[in-house]
Specification:
alpha/beta; Arginase, Chain A; eight-stranded parallel sheet; 11 helices
Length: about 300
Amino acid sequence: MKPTVRIIGVPMDLGQNRRGVDMGPSAIRYAGLQARLERLGYQVFDQGNVQVPNPEEEVAEGKLRRLKTVTAACQALYAMACTFIEHDEFGVYLGGDHSMSIGTIAAAAHKEPVGIVWIDAHGDFNTPETTPSGNIHGMPVAALVGDGAADLVNVGFAGAKIHPAQIVQIGIRDLDQPERERLLRSGISVYTMRHLDELGMAAVARRALDRLRHLPRIHVSLDMDSLDPDEAPGVGTPVPGGLTYREAHLLMEILGDSGRVKSIDVVEINPILDDANRTAELAVELIASLLGQRIL
């Protein structure tokens, strides 16, 4: 029996300084997410949006820009997501910038250990000491393993939410130098675009699942800037040389075939920069592939 799907929007662009990704949830809804999943046989409920303050309500300054409001939004998201997990429902979380994943992954980890497949052009492994910008959307992975500002580390419940060995990153190609050095020492399994070029997506996806085989559930965190800008132009921080259309779909299909994925974030869609909502439409297709849409 297919699980109930719950959708939550997180219209947040607090974790960065480029406006627009707060409109991402609306763009994905406009692209027909609920109808697409209902055609696949799911019962789908859209829970609306987490209430997020406007960036203008808090001055962005220092090494942790808008820490208070980011933390409050992640805490609210955590509380909502925990209710889905308690009822074994599938959570689809629509961003918004990637700092929201501090809340969703804290919820995913509150009941039992969880594996994380983090699909992104960026490592998001900065801390207040290494960040060149102060933008919190570059820090969620670090916060989730217990590094960084206490407010972020302690969202949901105190301390680290996951061990580095529970994380696989795919599509990485843009790292700050101190962040690169931290990742090399971290114990996180990182597949850069070079690995994908040499090994192929199918091999990388299966290696990721094997790495996480001892964990009962998997959470996927999909930053749409993991795709090449030719495929997904409407993102907050585009980086050339990313995933192709078919690589992204194959990854979702293989992860979905495992039967272990219980939730997904889709983040960093910026409709202001998009071309006729192409990026949001692609996001809907990728969510559908994860949830069982197949060619045959």
